[in-house]
Amino acid sequence: MAKLKGSPPAGSTQPDRREISPGDVLKAEGLSYRYPTGLQAVGNFTTGIKPGEIVSIVGPSGCGKSTLLRILAGLREPTGGVLERREPEAGRHTCSMVFQEDTLLPWLKVAENVRLFYRFQGERASKRRDRIMELLSMVGLEKFADSYPSQLSGGMRRRVAVLTAVAPLPSLLLLDEPFSALDEPSRIAVHQDVYQLIRTFNITAVLVTHDLGEAVSLSDRILLLSSSPSTIVKEFHTPFGAERDLLEVRSDPRFLEMYGDIWNDFRRQSTKAGV
Ligand SMILES: Nc1ncnc2c1ncn2[C@@H]1O[C@H](COP(=O)(O)OP(=O)(O)OP(=O)(O)O)[C@@H](O)[C@H]1O
């Protein structure tokens, strides 16, 4: 396990303990983060994430979701608590991240963007063509392999952005509001493709989102955070199982029921946060 350790969070009480199991891909115990400005963004975050689990993080605007995701990615060191990430199996990459912003390189063709990780590894361009074409066909984009990102729609570009992160076969995929710029029909269509990729390659995923419907339809578990400094105030386990059709899920009465439950708690937290 790779360990990132910070000093105990200043002024915190005991970690808000959630169940952590020995086989978890990721274990966070009492994580906290204070910016050099003095702002305590993350308070006392404790959870374990099981292999293959999809977990969404929701919470009031500005509560520290992106900060937390960057800590889970190893891009920021926590100032308190302990984070452990399990070493990936042979042939798998530790962790990939998809950002909200468009990160495709405009001067590279679609297939070259998807192959970028291997290019950085020094591989010849011809080496993974079949694999890259297989990935593109999984999201219906095989005909666009030789197009440039500017020739694609927003939804297509988001699919390619996710493929660039999935191509190295990450054990852990972190998604920071990756679909928020899309209109609702495009967003739901992209959800289905991304969901299939995650399940097919048995990837463990953590998604930060403002869209409660997205969280309910895509996740196994949803963590609702308090306002900053954020801690988990409630967890929700979705009842849909791994073999779900995301369009059908949206007309399942349990979807609306869970959406309503989360919304009530979410609104309470947002009111407390003054947003
Ligand atoms: N580099 C930084 N330096 C100082 N404070 C920061 C920095 N980045 C973010 N913050 C502050 O930390 C808090 C948490 O920010 P963060 O972006 O993690 O929240 P968020 O929940 O992802 O926000 P949103 O819902 O708006 O996307 C906010 O008050 C923000 O202003």
UniProtKB/TrEMBL annotation:
Residues 26-252 form the ABC transporter domain. Pfam families: ABC_tran. SUPFAM superfamilies: P-loop containing nucleoside triphosphate hydrolases. It comes from the Bacteria. InterPro entries: AAA+_ATPase (IPR003593), ABC_transporter-like_ATP-bd (IPR003439), ABC_transporter-like_CS (IPR017871), ABC_transporter_ATP-bind (IPR050166), P-loop_NTPase (IPR027417). One of its GO terms (molecular function) is ATP binding. Keywords: ATP-binding, Nucleotide-binding, Transport. Residues 1-22 are annotated as: Disordered. The keyword Protein transport does not apply. This is ABC transporter ATP-binding protein.
